[in-house]
Amino acid sequence: MRLPKALEAAFQAELVAYEEERKVKYITSIERMATQKGRKEGRKEGRKEGRKEGRKEGRKEGAIRLLQKALQLRFGAVPTEIQEQLERLSVEQLEDLMESVMAQSLEDITQKVVAIAPLPSEIDGLEVCSDAATLEARF
Known about the structure:
This protein is an all-alpha fold. Helices cover about 70% and strands about 5% of the residues. The termini are far apart.
């Protein structure tokens, strides 16, 4: 249904005045449906991404836990520096490092960890060793 031009102009003027007075934004049913559909799709996509990210994080946490347990069983207490370094590795790197659990010494593991992800020279202003020999010597 369409109003005559004169009535349409008067209606629009009244509508603008009403909206200004009430600070109400008029949303057509099509806009409302599109907004609802967009929100629904956004939530669906967000859940999908969240599940994917959660699986990735869980896989990494599991690999770290498994590697730490293997190191502990093989060598005893695992130095904090090595545990922190494991957190910086990717899942693939952690899986590759599992092969080293069969190494002859903790020194072998330390060298592998440092080779994959070298220690930063400083963390929060504290001096941190940057090679396997220094790290091994601390323990």
